[in-house]
Amino acid sequence: MLTREKILITGPTSQVAFPLAEKLAKSNEVYGLARLSKQQDRDRLESIGVQPLAVDLAEPDLGVVPDDVTLVLNFAVVKTGNFDYDMAANVEGLGHLMHHCRRAKALLHCSSGAVYEYAGHKSLSETDPLGDNHRVMFPTYSICKIAAESMARYVAQQWKLPTTIARFSVPYGDNGGWPWFHLLMMNSGTPIVLHSDRPNIYNPIHEDDYIRQIPKLIEIASTPATVLNWGGSEEVSIEDWCAYLGELTGLEPKFEYTDRALGSLRMDMDKMHRLLGKTEVPWREGIQRLVRARNPELLKSS
User: Which residues contact 161 (CB under 8 A, 6 or more apart)?
Assistant: First the structure.
C-alpha cells in the first residue's frame, strides 16, 4: 500500500471509502472531507486516525483543506435528486477541489459504470456510448457522473494534474454493498425488483481488491486523464449472488421483473487487466465473508 503520503479522501464515511481510509491511515497522513453533519461520523473518522474536514462541496469553503496534499482520492457522491444541488456538489465542487489541490502528484476520480448507455447484455468498453443509465432509480446520478468526468478531464489538462477516472462497478465487502441490501430484503421477505432482460449481470468487486488496486490507479494517472473500467474480473448476475445468499442462509429471494429497473451493466475489463491486473477475491468467497461480517446470525451454521 501507499506510505508516507499526505492523502485527501472525499466521501470517507461511505461504505466504499471508509475501509480504504482506515487502511491508508495506518501508514499515511489522511484527511477525510465530507459534510459531517453528524458528530458520530466525525468521531468514527477520528477513531481510525483520519483527520475530518467538514466541507459541503456544493458550496465549497476549502480553506480548511491543506493545499499541499500529495494525493487526492475522490469518492464523494451526492444524489439528492435535486439537479442544481447535485450538479454543484458532484461537478462544480470537483472542479474547485482539483484546482485547490492542483499541486498534488495525482488524483483518482471514482466514476461509475452508470455513465454508459444501457445496452442489454453487451460488454461495455471505455469507448462505448454514454447515457442516462440510472434515472429510473437515481434521477441525477448518471448525468452528474458524466459531467464530473468532463470536469476531471478539463482540470487535469488545465492544471497538469495527473488524473485517473475509474468507472466503478458494484463494490461490496465486510462494510456492506448491494449484495448486503439484497440479503436484508431476503430476510424481510421484500421482493427484489430486477430488469426483465434477465439475467442481470454485473462485475462486483470486493473491498480487498479495490483497496489493493489503489496504488496502481495512482501510478497510471496521467494528463490527459486515464479512463478505465474498474470492477471484478468475474461476471455475476444478481440472480446468482442472491441464490448463493440463499444457500448460505436458507433464505429464499423473491424477484419481481419489470422494465422499470436498472438493467445489466457488463463491463469489458481488458484495459483494467492490462493496467491493474485481475481481481483476486472469488465472488462466492467475498459474499460469504460479507455475511459473516454483517449478519453471522443468518448463516445456517450459526
Answer: 98, 101, 102, 104, 106, 107, 155, 223
Q: CATH 3.90.25.10 region(s) of the chain? A: 176-202+234-264+282-298
278: left (phi over 0), alpha (psi -120 to 50) or beta: beta
pTM over 0.85: yes
Does residue 301 carry a pLDDT above 80? Answer: no
What is the DSSP track for 112-149?
EGGGBPP-TTPPBPTTSPB--TTTTT-TTHHHHHHHHH
The C-alpha cell of 31 is what?
Answer: 484527511
Give the type of residue at 69: V
pLDDT digits (tens, 9 = 90+) for 2-17: 999 999 999 999 999 9
Check residue 225 and report its DSSP letter.
P
Give 73-86 pLDDT, tens digit per residue.
999 999 999 999 99
For β-strands 236-237 and 201-202, DSSP reports them as antiparallel
